[in-house]
What does this fold into?
Amino acid sequence: MSSIKIPQLLKLKDYITLIGTSLGIIALICACIGTRAVLSLGFFLISIATGIDMIDGYIARKTKTMNEMGKELDSLSDSLTFGITPAVLTYQSFKTETIFDIILIIGAICFTIGAILRLARFNISEVPGYTGVPTPLSALLVIVYFYANYFYAFGKGGITYPFLEFASYLIPFIMIIIAWFNITVYINFGEKDKTIYIIFLIIAPLCPALGLIGILNPNFLISMIVAGFFLSSFIFALVFIMRGFFLYILTKK
It folds into this structure.
């Protein structure tokens, strides 16, 4: 197997996966630049990557080209795109330049490790369905949290207006909770749980669409409406995840 040329191992879905990987790398570079506008672009790219992640899975099922190479490639790509990059973007977006940033670093590390461990367990699992929250969904949580704060701050005072202190102090604990969501065995979704796809079909495409509004210098009213949408999406996603927890409890009774 190791002597086979890489192009011979790749299927159509794998090339699509690599497009998502490329977006994750560009988003990571955006995090390194660190300005508010460029960070917004980074989250925008990650939200595009969540859609690509759905597309490559759909193509794999329709073309029946699921293979071990694709499985490993998909996990490696997801660890970067939905684990490492969102953590660095979130740190850069909410850092306070105080000692509290140590807590934020811990939150970012937990978020990343949670995503990687979840992907590793998924690769060796023979149980149908999903144990723990899928990494694209956990990335989507920090995306909508960022944009809720981004548009609120933009409406209050423009691109350089600071985020609410409360939001900055809350985010590391949110990231730690999301890491637990990734690795816990107390949250389960069925193999054909369509609610997961409904969330992505509603929220994921709207993240980049509404993210573009930020580039167009929206007025106060539009900024607040969009901020409200992202905050509502964040709360809705959390409720959905807790639904998975209660489904587990019910099945164990």
User: Anything to note?
Assistant: The mean pLDDT is 84.
